[in-house]
Input
Amino acid sequence: MIRAIVACDPTGIIGLNGAIPWRYPADFRHFKAQTMGGVCIMGRKTFESIQRFKTKETGLEMPIGTLPGRITLAVSRDASWRSNYVGRHASIVDAIEQAQWHCEDLLPCDKANDIWICGGGEIYAEAMRLDLVDEWDVTEVPEVSVPVGAEVTRCDLREFWWQAAWVEVGQEQPAGFAEAGLVRRVLRRRGEPRGLENARAALERP
Output
């Protein structure tokens, strides 16, 4: 099963001027708990932002994109981009193919289906366009005030809530969510998961 995990405000905002415009420790803990032990797929900008965040938080430079306890795969169309820590995948479909290999051969059996799409905006949009996601794990944060002229990044899932192919699954709210004004919502594809099947079909297209 391919899952996506995202935090957004009610209008779908996930970033302002290339950065996350909020800081909710409860959501960071939730992200870590959900993705731990699995494979995380993210775009280059998100991948590099982890470095900046860790450096700011600790004062120490950390390996770019490293998420302890998880396998991280980066997606970039820039053929010249390099990292000392991971390889470059030209598309989200290529990354999913590699992630499936990791799941089958390297991960403990209880994590064998944990492929997580972790952003940013272009990666989420491509996942929606190719219909790759079987389950969306959404943290809804309070509405963000957008300054005039700000560059806004969105992951707008509002239309999904009304599609017959999807159902919202009731979930226990993680610790600290209510106090911070956060709400967890999980949207799951009806029937059998199709994300991997759709990814393989995309790979076979000329």
